[in-house]
Known about the structure:
URB1_N; URB1; mainly alpha; URB1 N-terminal domain-containing protein
Amino acid sequence: MEQVNESRDQSKKAKKRPKDQLAVGNENKKTRLFSPKLFRKQLNQESSHAAVKQFLEAVNDSKTHDYIIEYLDSGGSCLELLQTLELDSSIPPAIVFELLSHILLRINASCPQYESAAYEACRYMLNNYAVVFSKMINLSSTTPERKACLKLLTAMVALSSHLAKDILIHINFHSTNIELLTKHTGEKNSVRDHFIRFLTAYLIDVHYPALSVLLEKKGFITSIVKGLQFDSSDTLCLVISAMKNHILENSYVSKTAKMRTFNTVVVRDIVNLYNWKGPGGMAAQKNNKIINVDQLEKSRVNECVHEFLLVLCTSHKFGVIFRDPFLGLGKKNQNALMYTVLESLDRPWDHSYASELVLKICGACPDLAKTIWANLKPFLVPRMSDKWLSAMKFAKQLIRELQQNCTEFCMKELNVTQLFQIVQCLVSPLPVIKTVLPETNIFESPAIKFNVISLLLEMLKSLNSYLKSLKTSLGAEDHSKLKSYVNNFISKNFLDGVKILNDYQNGEETPEYSQIQFLEVAFDIFEQYKHLSPILLDSLSSDNFEFSAILEKVDNISRAKEIDTSNLKVKMINIFIDFDNSKFLPHTALFSFVVPLLFKKYYSDASIDILTVLNKLLNNSGVFEECSYEINIWINAILNLKKFDENVVLDIIEILKITSENSQAFFDELYSFNSDSGTLKTYSNVLQSILNTDSKTEDKVVVLNHRYLSPVVLGVLKFSSEKEVSKGFKIYANFAFINLLHMQTRTDALVQIIEKCDFLSSSFKEYAVAWRDGQEIISLSKFRGKLDIFEKFSHEFLCGSLDDLSNSEAFDVIPDLLLSLLDASIFYVVNLLNKNLLTPHIVENSRKFVKYLIGRKSINDVFIERLLGHPVLLQNITFLSFAEDESANIGTHFIMNIIRELLDAGYKVESYLMVYRRKLLNAIIKILKKPQKYEQLASNVKELLQLFNLSYDDCFSTLNTISISFEKYQKCNIVLDILVYALEQLTTLCQINPKFEPLNENIVHNLSRYFVILATYQEIDLSNISTVFLSYLETFPHNLKNVDESLFQALLEIQDFSKENIKLAVLLMKKNVNHMNYFERNIDTICEKKGILLPLLAIFLENNTELEVLKQIYDKFESFLNKAIQKPQKAGQHFHQNYKGLVVLIEKCMPEENCQKFWEKIQKFEVTEVFHANLLSAIFLKSSTDEIDAKKINNIIMTFVHLQISVFKRGLKTDEDISKSKSVALIFDDVMNKLKNLAVSKDLKTTSKNETLKLYCKYCLKHGISSHSVFLKSLRSLLDILYSSMESDDGRAILEMLLSHSEFLGTVLGKNSEVKLEVLSLFLELCRSWPEFMERSHVPVLLASYGAMVNSCDKILLRLFKM
């Protein structure tokens, strides 16, 4: 009664209705059916039953008046109605419950001011009406009572998550009640519908703690799934979508909980929803009538169910599937639930949704593919029917789904044999192959055979795809072994070439089958055989098999049906060239037949595939021996014609025949051209020393050879002398000869031939002669043909900026166009360099073009060979040029720019770098002989060394040379730079390859002596050599004994010393006792240099603990130490990095009274530094005695609190701030642990009430729960000291901040981590200090967090449960 009266008092103070609502009330005043004031009076009279009934009718019937708002505004409440129910036993609870559900829903929708009173009323109901609720949902209740009860419970769930959780605790939903509530009755708005709304409210309106309690009730949430078969489409989609969005895709719900919720029975019921019957399905089923379902609604249902099952069965993140590392070959089934799903689907390949689901399941769980293949196998027995075709189509889709991306997670863990077994089982299962291939290899019809070989083709493609993808992860030997396994498997179980092709002409053509389609698939199979099992193609080379007959057959079909079969012909030619190349020689009729066909197709498509076949065909002719790089030029020249001219192709065939017949004579003539040339140069002797590599080097050697002419150019010359050439052929020949000229590494022979060719344009002849003889830059002009891009490029490259061409779409016109333009650019650069005419402008244009190629990702090995493999370019560059404007020096910058661009883009050019590295090494040898001569090249040499990188042997020999003659390199910066690079590179290479040996004793000793000599010249910066010496000696510490002892003294005597010098001195002092003695003898001098003293002090104190020496050091350094303690913001970097020695000095030498005096007040500092916190910790340890009073303990704690808050206030936005705050927190935690025993029985209320301390607690919780557990740890240590002096309200405030943190639930319910452990430990510490903090409401969250494992988190949870 007190609660009811209190509620009424609160209701009287509630807000009045807005004026607009009053206006509406006034307008409808005449039609009012209910008066809230009169109703409240009637509640206290005998007519209360009728009044409640009238109120409910008014609420249900009125659409113009909001009687609920009026009732609440007049002071009414839910508790008032409950009081009426308690006072008048004649009122059915169902009426009051239904009225309460309306009121709660209205409050939840638009009346937040009444939520508090409504919440309390609901709590009152759960505490006092639990028995009534339980009775109203059991067998003894009526249907209206169940509906009213469920409506009220649903409204309560929607109002508050806490209420939702309490409902599950107080109300008894046992199996009998659930069965009653989920039963189909056939009526609209049934009890089942109300129960479904009740359960879905948990999914949509509540937070995870309540949902977790719901999921803990086994089978409760999924009890409605079985009957969804006969629910409306809206209801089904609501339930399934809610379970998908709020259970499956809820990151807080664990996979274990999902598997417990969606068990085998539930999942089978959900899969059966693909066959949804609808609300009328149950009656029709009982009466054995045909079930008519709205197809639009069924499509909607199927889509909703399908989306749910895709997440459940195929998502590793949200679903209930697991990765099987053995992909089904192991003994344990990792996906038993998915196995049940697959078994429950009857012939899924006949249904679109089921088919897609099975395919996606196999893609996500490839270990289940074996099951699907076993289920599918009986339906793959060859028979020409729709069902068989459907099964075959599904088999091909399954193979495409089982690609290498679904198995990547485990491939690296398996051996080669296991890999083969898995790949074979996934994409080419032997039982399936034996099923589709008859034992006699005789098929009922070509159409059946066509479908079978189409399936075999998919298998072969997948096998090839797996082999390619595994090539990067397997070693060469393992990959070869795997390829051998695949080869053997295919050769034993697949059809050979002849068996595939025989009988393809016997069947009648249908819309599903044609001979052309058959041949397309057959030759695709042959292409796969070439890579996987070439032995199966051997039968095609027998004398009984005529390729020309098939080609003729295809040609006849093409003409008869007027269809394009050129692609098929290209495939056929590509295959058969490899088996009997003698049939494709220039003098054969087959050659004359296929070449025009290929050229015509290439002219129309400009396809890379056709270019490859043409290249193979012309290469087979034998006239391009050792000159295969020319072939594509002769092919691509056809694309320069403005329209296709078959006569030009016939001329090409004739030229090839002439060349083939006169090849030896033409070779001799080419040799005579070279011999007669006065400008011919052979670089073999010049390059021999450069190209020879050390025998110890294992890298592949690249030899930069010249590119020679093929005899085809002489064939063209002879052909033109015997026959008058056409205009089209002139255009063709001009294109070919221009690109041949650009590609040549030496042009003399070709220019002589060009001068003899009357059919070439005069402008081109002038262009060729000018570049051979002239001393001026001439661009290409009057270019004839369709591809004017060459003329534009030539002009822009030589005279323009090349900016416009970089964005031109004309580069995509033909294959190899970019390579041809690259040849032109290199041709210009090399010839200008050779004539000493190369300018920075040309070099910049070449860099732009190379960068453009890299940006297009057009660079491949051929491009790199053209860029870096030019022998004339190598010969003409120099690494020892003085003048910036010299052509050779400009050429050096050109090659450096190209290499730098390629390296930055990630291309591998090491084999070419070796060639240039030889030349660089020769330059270094010259420098070391006369260093003073090349001193001005120091910066250039450093850049060259960083770019080209010397090998281990080069570095070793260079260092050896320097060590032998070190005395003459006293003031040579260039030698110092070479030494620094060589020693650093050698150290790095030795770290990478343990086979490389360190320097010998003499080299190390002499280099250290050289270092001492350099140190005497104070103007030389020795930072770099100190760094590389330090790195080398740390890598090979055994060489420390070979270092000259005077080096340590020299390092300490450097006036402008650097941190690198000191680091080396520290290492030397660590390893040599004599240096300790020197340090002690010269302590007065060293103390004057704080930057040197502090790093060496820690090393010295590790080996010398004589108090007298320590006192001497302390006296010398005391003033600096005190200044650093009082003003840490002014301390130098040496204090930050080398504070450990100072800590020892404080512990050993600082007077105890000074330490005690330090804590007489709270210390506040401008900055927080880690070194400073360590010094304060040392001062605390020195002053920590049993007599320490509460004031000093307070001062110690608050000093560290201020230090920590100083960093917190900066927001921890940078890694530096985070690292600093963590370090200080660890120091503070250590201080707290040591202070704990001293603080026993001390009154620390002053500390616990300090507002700064409360702010510190807030910061620790804020940043600690986010991700930094160390703050929680230090807070827990602090509370362990202060709890006896803290009041309960202070502890509760900390607990509320902990529980209200936005990441608290996610942390506690998430995986075990350091943060979770510290959160639970802090929670335990608070509850242990104040047991009343442990409330019943905390238990569900803690239960959800408990994992029943033997780990620290679960042990703490068990201790909390016991409380």
